[in-house]
Amino acid sequence: MIVCVAVVGHQNNPLFIQSFTEADDALKLHHIVHCSLDVVDERVNNPKKSGPMLNETFLGLLYPIENYKVYGYLTNTKVKFILVTTDLDVKDADVRNFFRRFHAAYVDAVSNPFHVPGKKITSRTFAERVSTIVKSFGFSSAG
Amino acid sequence: MEEYPEELRTPPVTLASLVGCPELHSLISTHFMSAQPPINTLALPDVSKIIYLFNNKTDSDPTPTAPSPLVPGIFKRDWLLKHRTKLPAILAALFPSHHLTGDPAQWQQLCSDLDSIKAVIRGRNIKFAVVVVVNDNVDEISEDRMIALRKRAEVDAKYVIVLNPNDAANLKLSLHRMASTFSELAVAYYREEGRRVKQRIEKKNVNSVELIVRYCFKVAVYAEFRSDWPEALKFYEEAYHTLREIVGVTTRLPAVQRLVEIKTIAEQLHFKISTLLLHSGKVTEAVAWFRQHKNAYKRLVGAPEGTFLHWEWMSRQFLVFGELLETSSKTTQGFAPIILSTSSKPLCEWEYYPAYYYQLAAHYLSEKRSVLELAISMSETNNEIDSVVDSVVPSVYVGQFARLLEQGDNVDMLPLTDEEYICYAVSEGKRFRDSLEIIALLKKAYESYSSIKIMRMSSFCGFQMAKEYFAEGDIGNAKQILDTIASLYRKEGWVTLLWDVLGYLRECSRKVGAIKDFVEYSLEMAALPISSDTGVRRDIGLAGPANLLQREIVHNEVFELVNGDSGLATNERINNLKITEGESLQLEVDLVSPLRLVMLASVSFHEQTVKPGASTLITISLLSRLPLTVDIDGLEIQFNQSNCNFLITNGQKSQLVEVSDGIQQHRTEIAPSLSLQSNKWLRLTYDVQTDKSGKLECLSVIAKIGSHLSICCRAESPASLDSLPLWTLGDFVQTVPIKDPILVLSGQKSTQVEEPDPLVDLHLGASGPALVGEVFLVPVTLVSKGHDVYSGELKINLVDVKGGGLFSPRDNEPHAMDSHHVQLLGISGPEGEDDSQLDSDKIKKIQQSFGLISVPIIKNGDSWSCKLEIKWHRPKPIMLYVSLGYSPYSDELNTQTVHVHKNLQIEGHNAIVLYHQYLMPFRQDPLLLSKNKKASESDHSESLPLNQKNVLVVSAKNCTELPLRLKSMSIEVEDNAERTCSIQHGSEELANPALLVPGEEFKKVFSVSSNKNKSKLSLGTVCLRWRRDLGVEEQCATTSTLSWVVTKQKLPNVNLELPPLIVSFECPPYAVVGDPFTYYIRISNQTQLLQEIKYSLGDAQSFVLSGYHNDTIYVLPKSEHILSYKLVPLVSGMQQLPKFSMTSVRYSAAYQPSNSSNSVFIFPSKPHFKATVSTNSRVESVVNL
């Protein structure tokens, strides 16, 4: 189950962060998302370590914490998407698919002429769409 | 890692035992320790002690005769230690050589010793070696005795070693041989032991799985003893996997203890495996192994009451692996590149950081703590169990505990029930302060992350650490860490995280009673851009949930505190914070302060420059992000000119706000309302007046709220207003501080106050253009018309009109001392004032194009003047800037200065143009061969014939608009140059200075001759002394007072050459019509060669002539040939003589005489001259009009 998704801007500032859990505390998830930015930075700054990951938007598993897995995605405009899930056995394809749909939703949201780039995404439609994508995560690989 | 026993942590080392000759033991053991591989030695002084070494074995036999109540465990606790410290792999008996060679009694003793040793080691398979210690010479021992010894000891010849401690040369070698023999024996021993145990496994008749684990472990340890790492690893892994199988199968022990034992064994095996993997550099395998280990045991929580044991164990796994990783990464720098896609679960680079493991170790330890706390609170300890707990000790098996029961001398180990064990564990757990451990772990992680610049992770660890510190009551440490974390969150705009951190910081400052910090943190929290609920509900920290309501609560709380509404103080939490009467709290808000959110002051002058004394408008805009409206009691606006400071008081509040400094009485304005609404600019416009010139800058705006709090905001210009970091990242409408659209973009917090208009006239009187070379005087006059001039300074600047410098370093003029084209030479004071009379404190600084001179005090109406002396070296227009700076007041305090500027463009002209011309004597023409070539070559230098008298005419033309006076013209030769030619009339002065009106030319004739055979001839420099004509004052001017300007021009070098032929014409100076005269043409051959000359003489209408028209003649060397013609003039007047032309065949040079020298005046009739006309005095100079 996805517990948290986030969009992080250029200055590593949160643009959108939404947790989908009743049981767990969102603050901890915020910390996890924030910490995972270190991994994104590291991957981006040391591309040679990543090797085949070069030039790919999907960053893969960022780091494992005891009960969560954190995945990352970096758009061409250097906006980061972070996904925190409690499923310890996740298929890469599912995550890729999720990010692809999430990216599409993000693009639609920032294409809104009233959206100021670099500002928080407040669109309710975006939030709803993200919820839908999150709920369908893992069920359909076809997307 | 430190809690593991030593024998587990370090790789095992071979143990050898030495018996006999105790004096040599230390020598041998020292050498063995440093041998490769090292050998530990167990030294026994003599053979009788052997019994003590081995007799304890019977006590700890794994199969005791008396059945123990304890369940046999998997490993025995002391097995490894025994093999490392007690049970040698090899026993070496040392005998002095005289025992062999001495009397039979000694030999008998030796034999019996050998027998007793053999008896002891028999059955244990311990290797045996004999060392014979000789003192003097090896040869003493007979071969027979050696063989007898070998037979007696039942050892191979190579295991009988001879050692001579006195033979220094060979001692090292023999010790080395001994060490290698011993290690060989030890390897054999451990291999045999290992094989023996391995056979037991392979027979598969072992009845319990536990024994297989034990055997595998033993095989691995034996392999380690002989440094066979792959085998050791293999069997450790085997043991580990076998152990994994018995989880849930075995029922030997009560459930909790069973799991504890298995986990302890697994921990040891895992430790060994990880160590071996890391030492062999297989970091990736080690990390993968750890992950597998962690995942395998993570779920084995066990019974609920023993959960804390599981978490503690987990924490230890992470800690130990982290430490192993850290030590190994120190030795092997830079691990292999991460292979991310080797398996379905790729490793992540994070798993290579020790900090990751420390962080998780801390996490599990905190899990353990919370469970343990629960367990402690639940376990109502009764005395019966307490007594049991006191007697619990670790049993002989690893991971097992037993009750020690003392019955008289008998000590019995009794098994424990699970309840007893849990009680024991809980009571053990109580003894440790886990939070200190957690802090230590987090600190390790924090520092480790920080050192590799992973700031967010380290912040997270730091935050957890700070929370632990906070819980422990160590406020100082907590606050310090939190402050650094807060700055990161501020920078990146993680408002929810910042909110949480600030909540802790606020509580920290509340606890230590730091009221200012408390207010600052509270205000920052209240001003954070949190509008809606962020969804954080549980574990909301100390700050409460991050939402607008909570912000308002915080806001109210802090304003209650600072307003000192003690009567209303219902808030229990802030009871310990009180502001006493009269105490004030000033918060500073600068450009980088986080409190800019709380209050931001933007100040803008409406005008960029103002006249002194005039008033200008200033707009002060305040913005607050606090959630509720703040009522300001007063605003104090401070400027860099303190007399402009003013106060704005709130008209709604009756009481007057005291001025902060209280000494100076400032202007006070009353504003109808000073309430600062959330997110709305409060704009106030007032006028400001100043008399002082210079910059007027608003420094700060101090808002006074209540009786105690004042917020001092650094004034910011709207034009350069930095946006608030947190609020720009959020989704909030940006508003502008000023409504005026121009001021928003260009408004500045400072304005320039102009200086008062100067009341001093500055005149620059310059008469006409300056002439190059002369010292040009520019009179400067200061006339005071209303101001006194104090501490005046006159600055003079010379600037090239066309731009660029006044000098060019490339030009190297001999007559200019430096390369300045225009130079300020000096400033002469007013009439009668000498430089020496100037006061010593007067400044006078003259540079090439810059001058600074101080001006004496000039009273109103007075005047002062000086003269600038400027010299032009080149014709160049320059701009002269003169500026006077002065103070109209005499007092030192009022340093206001007034400036007057004047400029004047002055042209610099060349006064005199010099040029020159060479002439040959009249009617004489040398053939200069170089002249013929000249057409083809670019050499334009003049050529002069050698040994001939040449005429040099130098003309000086006045090219100014002014009349000039000439004193002299001369040709000067450089002193050092060799005199190569003679110049007559070189340096004679004119009797009276000649007046040269504009456009007029002055000519002087010099005669030059040289007999030096030198191709280049330097003639010297023309020197012309002149000055301006003074007009009517010319008469009274004496020569002594006037300075003459010297203009110099170097004459170009000339070529000298010997002309081969010289043609000269001779004819009378005049002729009379009808009167015949003779015209001679003299051709002189200067060479040593015969010259063939073709010549022709043309007809002339004015003359009748007799002689050859054309001919070819030969002129002999060094002789001359004269052609003579008889001419009868026919016409009067100036007439051309018949045209003569000739060609030198040898030089193929034609000669054409010039027209001017080839004419003669014909009188109509014979003239009558007076005899006195012919005079001896020569006309030296001719002035042509």
Automatic annotation (TrEMBL), chain A:
Q: List, alphabetically, the InterPro entries matched.
A: Longin-like_dom_sf, Sedlin, TRAPPC2L
Q: Which GO terms describe its biological process?
A: endoplasmic reticulum to Golgi vesicle-mediated transport
Recorded superkingdom: Eukaryota
Q: Which Pfam families does the UniProt entry name for this protein?
A: Sedlin_N
Would you tell me the Gene Ontology cellular component terms? cytoplasm
User: What is stated as this protein's family in its record?
Assistant: Belongs to the TRAPP small subunits family. Sedlin subfamily.
Q: Which PANTHER family match?
A: TRAFFICKING PROTEIN PARTICLE COMPLEX SUBUNIT 2
Q: What is this protein called?
A: Trafficking protein particle complex subunit 2-like protein
UniProtKB/TrEMBL annotation, chain B:
Trafficking protein particle complex subunit domain mapped to chain residues: 258-527
| InterPro entries assigned to the protein according to its UniProt record, in alphabetical order | TPC11
Instruction: Return the PANTHER family for the record.
Output: FOIE GRAS, TRAFFICKING PROTEIN PARTICLE COMPLEX SUBUNIT 11
Q: What is this protein called?
A: Trafficking protein particle complex subunit 11 domain-containing protein
User: Which species is the source of this protein?
Assistant: Sphenostylis stenocarpa
- Top-level taxonomy: Eukaryota, Viridiplantae, Streptophyta, Embryophyta, Tracheophyta
